């Protein structure tokens, strides 16, 4: 199985996420992660999916099906392109006065931050590529991870890329 990163630019309409993820379900894709957020254009959102596929034909078929959706403006498989990709993780680690200094020593080289401290735990925020987040989690596991939340990967291609700026013109083309 290969992991693929697929982005979809969509109109921010009620039910669009359900319709898009429904296509993944129909094609029996497992979504490893999904992020959705507003873009620079009002009323438009960007979805980033990380999916596992057996071969390239599967991803090509999925992209064709996604492009047929009414609220979908653009779909891209950006896996093999130069991309900027980040993930955020919040990690609540068991800690006491003695282990806080050790945990701070682990956090610093990762350019992560301690964002909350209580009597029995610290919460660490780390952002970066998936490998960096995984490495931070692995180093904190021996202390006891009390809670973990991850956003999943969000990404786009590097450099100047054309974006949908004239939605009226694009809507007429659909």
Automatic annotation (TrEMBL):
Enzyme Commission numbers on file: 2.2.1.6
PROSITE patterns for this protein: ACT
Keyword Chaperone assigned: no
InterPro entries given in the database record: Acetalactate_synth_ssu (IPR004789), Acetolactate_synth/TF_NikR_C (IPR027271), Acetolactate_synth_ssu_C (IPR019455), ACT-like_dom_sf (IPR045865), ACT_dom (IPR002912), AHAS_ACT (IPR039557), AHAS_small-like_ACT (IPR054480)
UniProt cross-references to Gene3D superfamilies, sorted A to Z: 3.30.70.260, ACT-like. Chain A, domain 2 (3.30.70.1150)
Sequence ranges assigned to domain ACT in this UniProt record: 5-80
One Gene Ontology MF term: acetolactate synthase activity
Pathway assignment: Amino-acid biosynthesis; L-isoleucine biosynthesis; L-isoleucine from 2-oxobutanoate: step 1/4; Amino-acid biosynthesis; L-valine biosynthesis; L-valine from pyruvate: step 1/4
Keywords: Amino-acid biosynthesis, Branched-chain amino acid biosynthesis, Transferase
Catalysed reactions, semicolon-separated: 2 pyruvate + H(+) = (2S)-2-acetolactate + CO2
EC top class named in words: transferase
Keyword Amino-acid biosynthesis in annotation: yes
CDD domains: ACT_AHAS (cd04878)
Functional note: Catalyzes the conversion of 2 pyruvate molecules into acetolactate in the first common step of the biosynthetic pathway of the branched-amino acids such as leucine, isoleucine, and valine.
Similarity comment: family membership: Belongs to the acetolactate synthase small subunit family.
Subunit composition and interactions: Dimer of large and small chains.
Entry protein name: Acetolactate synthase small subunit
Organism whose genome encodes this protein: Rossellomorea pakistanensis
Taxonomy of the source species: Bacteria, Bacillati, Bacillota, Bacilli, Bacillales
